[in-house]
Amino acid sequence: MSRKLHFGLHPYGVGGPGQDGLWKDPRIAKNASIDIGYYIEQAQIAERGLFDAFFIVDSQFINADYPAHYLNRLEPLTLLSAVATHTKHIGLVATMSSTYNSPFNLARRVLSLDHISGGRAGWNVVTSFDSQVSKNFGLDDHLDYGTRYDRALEFVNVARGLWESYEDDAFPADLQSGVFLDRDKLHALNHVGTHLKVAGPLNLSRSPQGEPVIFQSGMSEEGRDLGARTAEGIFSHAGTLEEGQAYYADVKQRAALLGRNPDHIVILPHGGPVVAETDAKAHARAREIYEEDNDFERKLGFLGRAFGAYDFSQHDLDDPFPDLTHLTERGGRRGAEIVSDAQANGWTLRQTVEATSAYKPSPFIGSPETVADSIQKWFDARAIDGLNLAFRVTEELEYFIDSVIPILQQRGLYRTEYESTTLRGNLGIPIPQNPHAGAGHGESSASVRAVDLAGV
Questions:
Q1: What is the average pLDDT value for the chain, to the nearest integer?
Q2: What is the 3-state secondary structure (H, E, C) of the chain?
Q3: Which partner from 55, 288, 439, 442 sits 20 to 30 angstroms from 329, CA to CA?
């Protein structure tokens, strides 16, 4: 089968990071982020556009400086379970933390969504960026970076082991013999590891796609390694074609060295296309969007997220950027990068805020033909397998579907109908072989886990 583009949709609601002014747009319902009708409509439109996945991000800590969408939004699995009953083909991907969940509970909830949707569930594995999340779970300190990623690797392997508790034909439900369950086809996990201890088995059978699709969204060395070891889809970021190519090649090579088929990992960088009748109108609209969100005070407040919700308002804006490296050790890598850049360039706090939030237009801005050309260029150059798309308002999503998608279809780059009723089927990813079932087809999740655990 020839290689085809894959698209996901990431709805903004009333506006997350970088869209601080979105809630002011008269076309946006002020309760969009908690209105299930909004999400159902977005998913149905994306399904009309033959998108692969509907992707819900999440976090579990806020303060008053966080963007509007963060302050008041629905929990991902609850949300997607409702969306599942109003869609038929599009995948449903929930962001859930491996740091602040238990494997049994999470595995059961995600697999439940997989059954509810007929095999369309995915789990975006995150380790929790906000270091203050710990205080919402009775812990004084956030786990350090390395420990979070070690736990994530073990967590994913445990979840997969639980999803394999039953063989596919474990339930004969034979009235004549009175046998509902073939006891020999139920398998306890009995996992005892560095971070987790889980007995199992899970009280839920495998889904039509075998098990939920694993997504990951890390750009650091640890994130790339976790993605190469466990992910079947990766949400990444790439500012330039060259950056996209480098990341794509790196992750695929890491996967190959681990004995995985690189084609079984679909890489979908974030894409915020701006499409209009002409290139000039599209670029004007892109700049207009930036200015709508260009609120210095909001950006100053949200900068603290990279430093454990640090309050930068206590500093003079024109003093040198403070050395807060010690506050980045348990968060993400972005904070340390900001400190390094500020020190190397001699930036003040004001200059740091401005530099980290400067106007950086998307590579996918222009007329429908121009945007289709750009997407094809990145796809052909092996910088992407597709894009995780985001649009400010519904009309812009619909315009992309009605104007850009047909061009990509005419070029043979994008499907004209869904290939499958499951997320795996549409992504072209095989059903994992249940190791308890003996020899079979598809990539063995047991063999992948064996490689994974060797690296823990």
A1: 92
A2: CCCCCEEEECCCCCCCCCCCCHHHCCCCCCCHHHCHHHHHHHHHHHHHCCCCEEEECCCCCCCCCCCHHHHCCCCHHHHHHHHHCCCCCCEEEEEEECCCCCHHHHHHHHHHHHHHCCCCEEEEEECCCCHHHHHHHCCCCCCCHHHHHHHHHHHHHHHHHHHCCECCCCCCCECCCCECCCHHHECCCCEECCCCEECCCCCCCCECCECCEEEECCCCHHHHHHHHHHCCEEEECCCCHHHHHHHHHHHHHHHHHCCCCHHHCEEEEEECCEECCCHHHHHHHHHHHHHHCCCHHHHHHHHHHHHCCCCHHHCCCCCECCCCHHHCCCCCCHHHHHHHHHHHHCCEHHHHHHHHCCCCCCCCEECHHHHHHHHHHHHHCCCCCEEEECCCCHHHHHHHHHHHHHHHHHCCCCCCCCCCCCHHHHHCCCCCECHHHCCCCCCEHHHHHHHHHHCC
A3: 55
pLDDT band, residue 440 (cuts 50/70/90): very low
Provide the pLDDT confidence category of residue 145 given band limits of 50, 70 and 90.
Answer: confident
Q: How confident is the model at residue 302 (pLDDT cuts 50, 70, 90)?
A: confident
Cα Rg of the chain, angstroms: 22
Q: Which residue is listed with tokens 């079932």? A: 437
End-to-end CA distance of the chain: give it in Å, rounded.
36
Q: Taking 90 as the threshold, does the pLDDT of residue 18 lie above it?
A: no
- The set of residues, in sequence order, having a beta carbon less than 8 Å from that of 283 and lying 6+ positions away, is 274, 361, 365, 366
